[in-house]
Design goal:
33% of the residues lie in helices and 29% in strands. By secondary structure, the protein is α/β, with parallel strands linked by helices. It has one domain: P-loop containing nucleotide triphosphate hydrolases (Rossmann fold, 3-Layer(aba) Sandwich). The protein has a 6-stranded mixed beta sheet with strand order 6-7-8-3-9-10, with helices on both faces. Strands 2-1-4-5 form a 4-stranded antiparallel beta sheet, covered by helices on one side. A hairpin with a 2-residue loop joins strand 4 and strand 5. Helix 3 crosses helix 4 and helix 3 runs parallel beside helix 5. It is globular, with a radius of gyration of 18 Å. The chain starts with 7 loop residues before the first strand and ends with a strand. Bound molecules: adenosine-5'-diphosphate. The site of adenosine-5'-diphosphate (ADP) has 12 residues, from strand 1, strand 2 and helix 1.
């Protein structure tokens, strides 16, 4: 077997996913082999039904493949059970979703603290780190606001702060600008540019061409397979 470079954040080998619904099997991923290295900024694009969400769920350890292997930051997660997957998600991945997924009754700071609560971090350290993450996304003056008191763009900044606060190996963003107007979209993409420049690894799923263009590499999913193409490669 050929060895993957040890430093690959994401190493998928011949990953397959079959959904069994009654008598019909749907082969959503048909053998995906893919490497993403530390510090890359990658956009995953493809038409509806091509397998993007399925790939995102597997990359995010929200679901496991039917076949093949997935190593995340050197750890084989292919056959993990739900408890171990939840642990890997908390340690290795920061999620940003289209719908923000903030808890409406909690302040921005408390929302950002949540992944640290699950990780068992002490209250003082949680507060300090959440405030630092909110400063990082330009919301130092909104720490006590609840989501309902913030604009859509600001809510997504809170979600980015929450994704960053655990210092994850990977930031996984699923249509992060899908609910934002053009000025908030520019804000969030600017933030991703900064995070990329600071060495973060970002994988962003999008169907919007102008969003995908901001990434350094585009991965196209078609009929359950990936076609990788470097953008701007020398
Ligand atoms: P995309 O995100 O690119 O629109 P998906 O990954 O959602 O694509 O879907 C890929 C294929 O798998 C489609 O044919 C879809 O109908 C099928 N599929 C997705 N999720 C399920 C599921 N939970 N059960 C059965 N089929 C599914």
């Amino acid at each position: 077997m050929s060895a993957a470079p040890a430093e690959s954040i994401i190493a998928l080998d011949d990953v397959r996913k079959v959904y069994r619904t009654g008598a019909v099997d749907v082969e959503a991923l048909r053998g995906v082999t893919l490497r993403i290295e530390r510090g890359e900024y990658v956009a995953v694009v493809g038409p509806s039904g091509s397998g993007k969400s399925t790939l995102m769920h597997i990359l995010g350890c929200l679901d496991v493949a039917t076949g093949g292997t997935y190593r995340l930051a050197g750890e084989d997660v292919s056959d993990m059970d739900e408890v171990d997957l939840a642990d890997v998600r908390n340690r290795q991945i920061g999620f940003v979703f289209q719908q923000f997924h903030l808890l409406p009754s909690l302040s921005a700071q408390r929302n950002v603290e949540l992944p640290l609560v699950y990780a068992g971090v002490s209250r003082d350290e949680r507060r300090e780190r959440a405030r630092a993450a909110l400063r990082r996304v330009g919301l130092a003056d909104r720490v006590d606001h609840r989501p309902g008191e913030l604009s859509g763009g600001q809510q997504q900044r809170v979600a980015v702060a929450r994704a960053l606060v655990t210092e994850p190996a990977l930031i996984l963003a699923d249509e992060p600008t899908g609910n934002l107007d053009s000025s908030s979209t520019a804000d969030i993409l600017g933030l991703f540019d900064e995070l990329c420049a600071a060495g973060r690894t970002i994988v962003l799923i999008t169907h919007e061409h102008e969003v995908a263009e901001r990434a350094r590499r585009t991965i196209r999913v078609l009929d359950g397979l990936v076609q990788t193409a470097s953008v701007g490669a020398a």
